[in-house]
Amino acid sequence: MNLLNSYQRARLLLLIGSVFSFIAFWYSARVFHIPPYPGYQSALLVHSPYVLPFLIIAIVLAVSVAIGTAVAGIVRFNAGLLTASLGLAALSFRGGEPRHTVLTALSLIGPGQIFLRFFVELLILSIFVGIAWYILRRLYTSGKLRDRETSIMDEGESVTPSAEFSSLAVQFIFTALLVMLIAQSEAKQQVMGAIFIASWAGSAFAHTFIPTGPRSWYWLPPLLVGLLGFLLAWVFPPSGLFTADFRGSFAGLYRPMPLDYASMGPAGAIIGHWMSRRWQRDRNAAQTTTA
After folding, report:
1. Which residues are registered as beta bridge partners of 40?
2. Is the pLDDT of residue 289 over 50?
3. What contacts 11, CB < 8 A, 6 or more positions away?
4. Distance CA 202, CA 168 (A)
5. C-alpha to C-alpha distance for 100 and 87, rounded to whole angstroms
6. Contact 34/44 with Cβ under 8 angstroms?
7. 105-141 b/e with 16+ CB inside 10 Å = b?
8. Residues 245, 253, 114, CA angle at the centre, nearest 5°?
9. Distance between CA atoms of 42 and 91, rounded to whole angstroms?
10. pLDDT digit string (tens) for 197-236?
């Protein structure tokens, strides 16, 4: 007799993969001192060395995606990217409050380069996520990674490039608006929660009304929101910089740190897309039944 139904087994596998990834990132960060000042620095380009942290992250991310795929790939072919993204959040938790990071950066690199370095850091992390997604996507299209639900949903599915672009544009706008609305303070729990909720809701909303397939780039808009926020803050320095007490219409976009966007952003967007796909399947089933 099975003690767990398919829904419960899927959640358990995702939990196991996420816990493994979190532990892997946490202990690798402890061994290699990432960040060098836990609790006071959650950015990677504030204090040297600059190359080693990204090298370690790339390696641990690749291992986490591989193991997450092996453990939870039966749930969705891209489950490994979700579990690895959640694991990456360990580095952000270890780094502490964004306020401390900004104040530390002010003393080390000066006010003119803070948000530019945040932009570059998030860009590098986004490339890592993109490479992981590209590999999973290629494995999926080649038939080496398949799961039953994705295969059923993908049968006869056709998404035009214009629909794909429209869906991603709606997702980007909706995610950005929600981040600005929810991220009202520099508290770690609030900024990470804001990124996750906004990314999840933006993805679920956009891809429900403009459906896209499993090979969509739905993980990207939350990262673009962060890049835009840091670029705006670099070009138009915010008030309250020297107290890390940001105010203004766009303050919510640059209160989170790059690691917050790189971890909670793709994770929320992936879950939101999964939900939109399930809702789409239920609608199709209902229409078929009615017909």
Report:
1. 96
2. yes
3. none
4. 9
5. 22
6. yes
7. bbeebeeeebbbbbbbbbebbbebbeebbebbbebbe
8. 65
9. 7
10. 999 999 999 988 888 888 889 999 999 999 999 999 999 8
Give the Cα separation of 271 and 18 in Å (integer): 13
Tokens 């860009």, located at residue: 123
- Rounded Cα distance, 244 and 97, in Å: 11
The DSSP secondary-structure symbol of 40 reads B
CA proximity to 98, closest of 257, 263, 232 = 257
Joined together, the tokens standing for residue 260 give 């917050």
- For residues 269 and 199, is the Cβ–Cβ distance under 8 A? yes
For residues 187 and 50, what is the distance between their CA atoms, to the nearest angstrom?
Answer: 26
Residue 10 · residue 58 · CB < 8 Å: no
Q: Per the confidence metrics, is the pTM higher than 0.90?
A: yes
Residues in a beta bridge with 96? 40
* Residue showing tokens 């090298």: 55
Q: Are 87 and 18 a contacting pair, CB within 8 Å?
A: yes
Beta strands (DSSP E) in 87-149 are: none
Residue with tokens 């899927």: 10
* Cα–Cα dist 157/287, whole Å: 16
